[in-house]
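Researcher: Structure for this, please.
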Amino acid sequence: MNASEPVGTVKALWRFPVKSMLGEELDASDLGEGGIVGDRAYAIRDRETGKVASAKHPKLWPDLLACRAAFVQPPRPGDEVPPARIELADGTSVLSDAADVDAVLSALRSRRGAGARRAERLHHRSVPP
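Model: Predicted structure, token format:
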């Protein structure tokens, strides 16, 4: 095989603005050193533990994969990452830069014990252009 031979066909292109949430299907996207520009640009970080939320821990984050995120405008290489609209499973919607984002996202965390609940923080990851 040489470098000019086709090796496959792209059937679908997806970007996931927030780690471990459903994303958005794209017709086209800019690519950077880290892959699709804006992919997993945001993550939810638990304020109490400092750990990033992951769908790999469904007992801690039971509704994470039922949420969807999409950028309000397409991110561009080298530019500031635009806000993402996050839709929770119950239909609630919030922008990543909204003043009440922590309160809205705190519903995603499943914790036992009184006084153990704290708001999660949407965390922007630095991604090279």
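Researcher: Any notable elements?
Model: The radius of gyration is 16 Å. DSSP finds one helix and nine strands in the chain.
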